[in-house]
Amino acid sequence: MTLKTIFISTGEVSGDLQGALLIDALKRQAEALGVELKIVALGGSRMAEAGATLLGDTTSIGSVGLLESLPFVLPTLQIQRRAKQYLRQHPPDLVLLIDYMGPNLSIGSFIRRQLPQVPAVYYIAPQDWVWSASSIVPRNTMTLVEMTDQILAIFPEEARYFEKKGASVSWIGHPLVDRMQSSPTREEARAALGIAPEQIAIALVPASRRQELKYMMPIVFEAAQQLQAKLEGNWELGIGNWELENSAASTNYQAPLFWIPLSLEAYRPAIEAAIQHYGLNATLVAGKTQEVLAAADLAITKSGTVNLELALLNVPQVVLYRVSRLTYSIGRLLKFSIPFMSPPNLVVMRPIVPELLQEQATPENLVKEALELLLNSEKRQQTLLGYQEMRQLLGEVGVCDRAAREILQLADSKKQKQKLSSPSFGYSVSQLREVDQNNLTPNPFPTREGE
């Protein structure tokens, strides 16, 4: 049996999740090919459980913003130094970079300079295709194109963008399409969490990074406090037809509950203290993120991958994001701009979920948008229709296996001076024209009753 070694580099909670999903697929495909697979990685506990040998845990080393990144500079450099030393001593058959832009651009550039014979693949590349800036984004794009042999794009527009810049690209679809195949239904999730059918359940997702605890959790929890006061004793949710009816005198009334999925155990003390401070009727849950999201009638959430998860579960959501004032001001000076910050809106390039950025991200605005989604059936229906449109652009089921086959094929081939001319398992950019003209697949995920 042939032995292949793959080195994977990723970071933060979302990267650990995507890495674990891909490792499972790599093991399946390797077994089918009669290949023994050794995976060494920078990642987290999910990847370790999937079978990777970790050189360092990067799940808590990550941030968005300039000032916010400073505390993580030294830990990041230390882990990178360890990884580069390992790569020099034990050159792998392939290096796989997942998300985690800054550190991965450094590792990819190192591979190109020091180990040019080792193929490099970027999976979930930086979102250069949606950002605009005077010089930084084009420079990052050029670096990425030069250091990679293949980009596995998760969005059609991403594939088009990087191909125009000279990269070898294939569009494989978004890996959450695979993960959500096993997600619980609303009823299953509520049964697992002990939530009654008539109970209002609102998911709060304020943080997967430490900086988000500082800049977003207080806003989210104050909004939840206001929602709790408005909803208690005044409203009841009719699940069957998704209508909220005034029911101050209802004998079946139950107070709203907030559910908070715990992204990292290190954040538990801060979140529990905040729940008590704001007097929230809230439950903090570890290890059952999908159940919390699937059970919710509404989510108030930071921007990120979780927005796509909620959309695929047909859960209406209000999205917010904040960074420090200095970071925001510097970003404006550098002419950074992005049309949308939440993935569902970016996929369709129009607003299907409400977004509140920086000064607009206030408790009052969050409450206003949340009540609109709870009380306005037309608004809710528009959101769900937008989710259906988004789903068509995420690709067909089997994303991780398609990615795994391409990765193993490249790891098995000798490094060529020319980049791969075309993908074997994903869609080439030219094939995307055909995809654009045909609906990919109907939404395979269960919809809510009455929707």
Automatic annotation (TrEMBL):
The reaction(s) this protein catalyses = a lipid X + a UDP-2-N,3-O-bis[(3R)-3-hydroxyacyl]-alpha-D-glucosamine = a lipid A disaccharide + UDP + H(+)
The enzyme class is transferase
A biological process (GO) of this protein is: lipid A biosynthetic process
Q: Which UniProt keywords apply?
A: Glycosyltransferase, Lipid A biosynthesis, Lipid biosynthesis, Lipid metabolism, Transferase
Q: Which GO terms describe its molecular function?
A: lipid-A-disaccharide synthase activity; phospholipid binding
Entry EC no(s):
2.4.1.182
Lineage, top-rank taxon, reads Bacteria
The GO cellular component terms are: membrane
Sequence segments annotated as region (Disordered): 413-451
UniProt keyword Lipid biosynthesis present: yes
Where along the chain is composition biased (Polar residues)? 423-442
Give the signal peptide, or none.
none
NCBIfam families noted in UniProt: lpxB
Q: What does this protein do?
A: Condensation of UDP-2,3-diacylglucosamine and 2,3-diacylglucosamine-1-phosphate to form lipid A disaccharide, a precursor of lipid A, a phosphorylated glycolipid that anchors the lipopolysaccharide to the outer membrane of the cell.
- Name of the protein in its database record: Lipid-A-disaccharide synthase
- Organism source for this protein? Symplocastrum torsivum CPER-KK1
Q: Upper taxonomic classification of the species?
A: Bacteria, Bacillati, Cyanobacteriota, Cyanophyceae, Oscillatoriophycideae
